Amino acid sequence: xxxxxxxxxxxxxxxxxxxxxxxxxxxxxxxxxxxxxxxxxxxxxxxxxxxxxxxxxxxxxxxxxxxxxxxxxxxxxxxxxxxxxxxxxxxxxxxxxxxxxxxxxxxxxxxxxxxxxxxxxxxxxxxxxxxxxxxxxxxxxxxxxxxxxxxxxxxxxxxxxxxxxxxxxxxxxxxxxxxxxxxxxxxxxxxxxxxxxxxxxxxxxxxxxxxxxxxxxxxxxxxxxxxxxxxxxxxxxxxxxxxxxxxxxxxxxxxxxxxxxxxxxxxxxxxxxxxxxxxxxxxxxxxxxxxxxxxxxxxxxxxxxxxxxxxxxxxxxxxxxxxxxxxxxxxxxxxxxxxxxxxxxxxxxxxxxxxxxxxxxxxxxxxxxxxxxxxxxxxxxxxxxxxxxxxxxxxxxxxxxxxxxxxxxxxxxxxxxxxxxxxxxxxxxxxxxxxxxxxxxxxxxxxxxxxxxxxxxxxxxxxxxxxxxxxxxxxxxxxxxxxxxxxxxxxxxxxxxxxxxxxxxxxxxxxxxxxxxxxxxxxxxxxxxxxxxxxxxxxxxxxxxxxxxxxxxxxxxxxxxxxxxxxxxxxxxxxxxxxxxxxxxxxxxxxxxxxxxxxxxxxxxxxxxxxxxxxxxxxxxxxxxxxxxxxxxxxxxxxxxxxxxxxxxxxxxxxxxxxxxxxxxxxxxxxxxxxxxxxxxxxxxxxxxxxxxxxxxxxxxxxxxxxxxxxxxxxxxxxxxxxxxxxxxxxxxxxxxxxxxxxxxxxxxxxxxxxxxxxxxxxxxxxxxxxxxxxxxxxxxxxxxxxxxxxxxxxxxxxxxxxxxxxxxxxxxxxxxxxxxxxxxxxxxxxxxxxxxxxxxxxxxxxxxxxxxxxxxxxxxxxxxxxxxxxxxxxxxxxxxxxxxxxxxxxxxxxxxxxxxxxxxxxxxxxxxxxxxxxxxxxxxxxxxxxxxxxxxxxxxxxxxxxxxxxxxxxxxxxxxxxxxxxxxxxxxxxxxxxxxxxxxxxxxxxxxxxxxxxxxxxxxxxxxxxxxxxxxxxxxxxxxxxxxxx
Length: 1031
What we know:
Layout: E1 26-28, E2 31-32, E3 41-44, E4 56-63, E5 73-80, E6 93-99, E7 107-113, E8 123-124, E9 139-140, H1 148-152, E10 158-159, E11 173-174, E12 180-181, E13 196-199, E14 205-208, E15 215-221, E16 224-225, H2 228-233, E17 241-243, E18 257-261, E19 265-268, E20 271-273, E21 276-282, H3 298-302, E22 305-314, H4 321-329, E23 333-339, H5 356-359, E24 374-377, E25 386-395, E26 403-415, E27 418-424, E28 432-434, E29 453-458, E30 471-476, E31 482-487, E32 501-507, E33 512-517, E34 523-530, E35 536-541, E36 546-552, E37 558-560, E38 565-566, E39 571-576, E40 595-600, E41 609-610, E42 614-615, E43 624-625, E44 638-643, E45 648-658, E46 661-673, E47 675-681, E48 689-691, E49 697-699, E50 711-715, E51 721-725, E52 735-738, E53 744-748, E54 760-765, E55 777-783, E56 788-791, E57 797-800, E58 810-816, E59 824-830, E60 837-842, H6 844-849, E61 865-874, E62 877-882, E63 885-889, E64 906-911, E65 920-924, E66 930-934, E67 937-941, E68 949-954, E69 969-972, E70 976-980, E71 986-991, E72 996-1001, E73 1006-1010, E74 1014-1020, ...
Parallel strand pairs: 31-36
Antiparallel strand pairs: 1-15, 2-11, 3-15, 4-5, 6-7, 7-10, 8-9, 12-15, 13-14, 16-24, 17-28, 18-21, 19-20, 21-22, 22-23, 24-25, 25-26, 26-27, 29-32, 29-39, 30-31, 32-33, 33-34, 34-35, 35-39, 36-37, 36-38, 40-41, 40-54, 42-43, 44-47, 45-46, 47-48, 47-50, 48-49, 50-51, 52-53, 55-58, 55-68, 56-57, ...
Keywords: Signal
Domain DUF6383: 957-1030
Pfam family, one: DUF6383
């Protein structure tokens, strides 16, 4: 190809130049020196027609080395035996006619080099310059050592033999195969130069005395056919043909790909797909790759859409005699798109053949010949191209169906005052130029500071099992190797990083863009062309990247295509992705509770297997593992997924725009995931066991999950998960899997797409009933077996028999975690004449600290449920005392002295769902253990032993919970607020910024509550809020 397109990307648009082949034949030609035009010619020794010359002139550049002209260059000539095909332009010259300026002029000619764009010069024998009255006795070829005076004698004109000039002086023809003597700078008179050029076959070129020179003749350039691959190379995988001033140009409406049929493809007797070059606007995936420019299958041909000459529509609608004559000749027909399966494939040319009249195309039928285009160019029309259809079959008469046949050109015609593309006859029209394809500048796809992350959807493809409509992702088809795959939306979860690509690098010079998969870091580099659709692009260069189409069949199985496709040649849509750095991986909260690990075909199947811990050891030496699943849900083991303190990260580079320049931020695009220690929940055991990555269970001292093996929980769109070894999130990864026989292993690859009938893993949360309504309220809890939950005189939680002392049986519930699926409550009782309340509390922390203190443990060692004095300052903090010191308690300790352990004060109250629709169970938020009763004493245990209670809602508090009074007063004091007449009501005090500073149910008729200096807002239950100024 021409050197102009050796560098494809030099600006925003793909720069296209000639696709003229480097080989060019020399055509012996008669040339009129007076009317040579702008055509180019070779010059050589005369030969018979059809033969190559024995020697040619070649332009050479001579750099002067002397004096004032040192470094300047001039053009001379030398001889060559053949035309060097890699330097063709050096052998080509334009002929320029010049006059001596006289009243009756004498004409000369000059040779202008195509390679250097300037004239060939010769050196005079004395001081001499061009013009009238000059004298010279001899001329010669120039040299690098010519001094300043010699350079002044340089001249370029060559004389025209008078015998060549026609009598009317309008022509001066140098005949083909004959030639003429070249005499530089000939003038009339005694001083005229008579030296002649002599070219020998050796191939020495010299200037010799008159009579010793050799005749030279002109050779025209040959017209070359442009190959399909060269056409497609102009845009790397296709081309566009522009036609000046033509608006409706079918060759520029879309990118075209040229295909060569190298030999006839038979269909049936008399019917073939003829050899030739065809222009396709769409084609199957098998033809999409940039290195594919030939069709060798009739089936593939029929799947294409082609441009063809329209045999019916004549663009000249005048219908006069001239129009009719033109139509008969095949002129003024337009073009159209034709599906490859809709052609008339009858190619017999003998009109005496049996059935010829019935089989040949007729009427509106389009002959396959109408789609065969010969594209030609030559050195006289460099960067311009002609189109010829050699067997155009068309309606010669508008009112008759019969088709004629003619060789026509496609060119620009003016019809009805409009420039159109139409058929014409006669000489070729070099009317077309290769169009520029709008290459996407990488910077146009970049954000100005953040990562540019896209979902990639395929627009190309026609059939349901093609890539059309599917999304690019990274999967594993065979363990050990990632592949790019195209999957439908039933599988591809677009919010997951597995189906998201970040622009990680760009090459602005070559317009190359590198897309990196955010989860696997697999990447590909491509060049994109824009299309007429927003956000849709043609992949012009995919750097050999391939992807495999994965189809979901009717039975739910995944069917991978038998062979991968080239990304190059496809059309994609880039949609900005929604980025959540934790997407695709479980990010469980502390409210998620315990879970079963279930193996099933889907998440709603009744035919389930469950992970179960089995002891394969001996008495006193247990050996637990989960290598065999059970189909009995009642035997299923319960697990707690203990989330790591900090997440792990997958980091990729990303490119962003800064001051109109693409800049790379290293390892800044992040995908995050937590790891989990999988804890076996078995309250009957004193020891704590965690799952190991070999599926055995290991005792972990101090119940520290950091000392246990870690697992990643990768989420799939269908709700299933992969539970993966911490270090095996890879193409050969180790994920837990269960087969149909219930055998559990840890060798699954988390990126293999599973069929619908494959057993998958699910996290099945422990089924919990509906929560008690998450609102502040007075409630008494009645045991289903009799008695009420209460607090005894030692502040211990007990089950009390209902007596006259009913006031001891009512609790106040404050809400917490109200946005959680399962909200929590603080359960408290008021204390007469005290601001503090008594909050139910699982005293494990205290029992562990005060080992022998009977206040915290029962005689059997169980930790007591006690009530502890405190004030709830807000839903996240409880003020109480520890070792006589006032402290704040929150969920986690803080550097300011706040203690952790607030979840020991939080309880979830939800339906038991075990045969009694009205019964509730109470579970501690800290450890998900349930309130149980042993001989009337409250502690925590497993669900099977949980005490079940009915909630009896109270409209008003009783006894020491307070009584209503006629009037409520708010009195501001120094550092406090006194509430009078609000016994049993909830009081919330907040500062002017809306921050709650006190939240309590007052237990006395004259309660004093600490408050900060300044304006506070006091809200008493059932009353309008009032403002007070605290001194």
